[in-house]
Amino acid sequence: MITNTALEYKGNLFPSKVVSYEHEGDSISFNTDNNVILKVTILRDSLIRFRFTTKGYFSNDFSYAIDKSQLHGYNFLNVSEEENHFEIRTSKVKCKIKKADLRLSIYDLNDFLILEDELGFHWEESYEYGGNIVKMSKSSKDGECFYGLGDKATQMNLKGKRVENFATDQYAYHKDQEPLYKVVPFYIGLHNKQSYGIFFDNTFRTFFDFCQERRNVTSFWSEGGEMNYYFVYGPQMQDVVTTYTDLTGKPELPPLWVLGYHQCKWSYYPESKVKEITSKFRELKIPCDAIYLDIDYMDGFRCFTWNKDYFPDPKKMVAELAEDGFKTIVIIDPGIKIDKNYWVYQEGLEKDYFCKRADGPYMKGKVWPGECNFPDYTNPVVREWWAGLFKELISDIGVKGVWNDMNEPAVMEVPNKTFPMDVRHFYDGNPCSHRKAHNIYGTQMARATYHGVKRFVYPKRPFVITRSAYSGAQRYTSSWTGDNVATWEHLWIANIQVQRMSISGMGFTGSDIGGFAEQPTGELYARWIQLGVFHPFCRTHSSGDHGNQEPWAFDEEVINITRKFVSLRYQLLPYLYTMFWQYIEEGIPMLKPLVYYDQDDTQTHYRNDEFIFGNHILVCPILEPNAVGRRMYIPRGEWYNYWTNEFAIGGREVWVDSKFDEIPVFVKAGSIIPKYPVQQYVGELEFDELVLDYYFKIGKEKSEVYEDAQDGYDYKKGRFSFLSFRTIGKEKELIIQLHKEGKYETPYGKYKINFIGLPFKVTEVEIDNEKIEFSAVDFELNHFLIVEKGFNELHIVGE
Q1: For residues 657 and 648, what is the distance between their CA atoms, to the nearest angstrom?
Q2: Can you give the pLDDT at residue 107?
Q3: Secondary structure in 3-state letters for 231-244
Q4: Are 336 and 346 contacting, i.e. CB atoms less than 8 angstroms apart?
Q5: Are 596 and 590 in contact (CB under 8 A)?
Q6: N or C: which end of the chain has fewer CB within 10 A?
Q7: What is the model's pTM?
Q8: Is the peptide bond between 270 and the residue preceding it cis, with omega within 30 degrees of 0?
Q9: What pLDDT digit, counting tens, does each position of 570-627 carry?
Q10: Where is the DUF5110 domain (predicted)?
């Protein structure tokens, strides 16, 4: 017999019958007779928010994840009451809510069932902390697949997996390890060629189960807070990802140099070592734009200080590096050393800016400097103070970017590796414990850092990178996948992680090339470089405890492969820049898993390795040693082997030969790929032509090229160049139409168009309806034309 009252009532609780409802504007509220309220808000015809409370009223509606600058609106909304349910209809979907228990189901307008509750919303009282453990379970359809969730070191398709979201410092993590550094509680479901998304905007520790515990049930739950989630309808995965990215926000355009190659190590010091590294890059003609300084540049690991023994004149050093094309990036951690003679600590203490325990004393934890206090970045006053601390680094010394690390937050020598859960946070006027603030701590640090860097680097654009992040962090920062390991398994993990981050809204992501922990072989490093140059963020980083990891740390062959692939990245910078422009303008991910590219082809649903880089390039890394090629899946359509220009029909798995200095790369037929000449750093060269590689296709295709001044904010005033190419290929004819938008005039005056795969001999060329003189013999030999920029239509006729 149970006599303990708490135990007697412990267990799952459920909404009871609906007793009333109200419809006001874009929101409909349903009230049950046991005080549960479900508030349904229609943000768009395909974006619906579901918010539950069990106490008869809602707490303050606040989210760090949602981009409040986005305007929402729907085209159609109708609410009707039926005998057993309510129906909410938009121009895209209809939602039925049962009167008996608030369980809901969502259909398209053809009555196809997209998603339905199993148990639906339920909860359990949290007797240890107060509040509720909130839960949701959904029925899963046969063959349903699941994607997203950000930084997860597991298969692309999450079917059969259970994952945990709690930002954690996981040094040398392994495949399937949970949790990791980032928290992105957003997933994409796909069944019967229909995609939808769920974003569970809850910053407490959350869990997702994709049919692991029960075969046909998907569930998600949190240790506290509200059951507050957004449903996003596709039906294409592209629509789901774009809508979610709009909801949580997009970054501003980075300066072009940020898309170059970066070199980092824990740590490069003293100054002579830094210059030795940068000089070697220039000597070997391996392009590089950024050099990083890890924690050893500081005085006793105190943030915003310099070790003058290692770096006696940092301003002079940074200026000299800049003359050679290197931008200096420095690390800044959240732990502020407890030292009464340290000016940052003095200010934080004087102004009461550090996090406190529940009963009053400051949160104290050991990090690199020893005992530290930690700023409460959830307080806007503290964020403003933190932003101001960057003045000397950026304005005076000339540092170009900041790297935030250890901001999960990580604390050494404690069992849970982070703050105690009783630490209090301001949470922008919604005071709470660390249970609620933990997952957004790193994002708010990155936010404060971003505003500081942006303020002092102006009129140039800022660059910030963070290890820990929550949904929406992409508005302020790039990221990397944390302390990985120099193993072939981690090369496989890195490939999937960056793809997954890309479709989870955080596209500006890369991995530590070569692995942070342990030491790669030359072969592994070369294969990682070959993958890493196709990631949005491209940086080699390693632990100094495990040997050297510069390209020349191996042999001449690895040096040559590194030069070849980094040079290729620099050639593709206009293509990369265009990818980024489409990401910030339209929410289109820069990397596209094959399932995103073609969800109707079931062969793509379980592919991990292959991905689309931008819109037109297919990449498949080599992920095992001693490989002379690999099997890979070429998606449906027509493609050209980048290295051989051989034509390939997709929709099938094929063997592709691949030498050590190559990986399988294919270009979509009909595409135009823009290229710059190889530069050792962005801005090194002036050039008078843009190379355009055109890959012939019978039919139509679109390609785009975005350019601007490569830094600064004139692009926001219309001073950009956006070229839209439309190609029409026929058996003996090719038409290239060009439309330009924007007021920016590129410094080059010509296009060099390389024609690949032309099936006919060219006999006539017209530009804007005027025939031009050209040498058929030379064209036959070289297959290119040099034309003045600014044409509207290029017409090529053959026989």
Answers
A1: 13
A2: 98
A3: EEECCCHHHHHHHH
A4: no
A5: no
A6: N
A7: 0.97
A8: yes
A9: 999 999 999 999 999 999 999 999 999 999 999 999 999 999 999 999 999 999 999 9
A10: 689-757
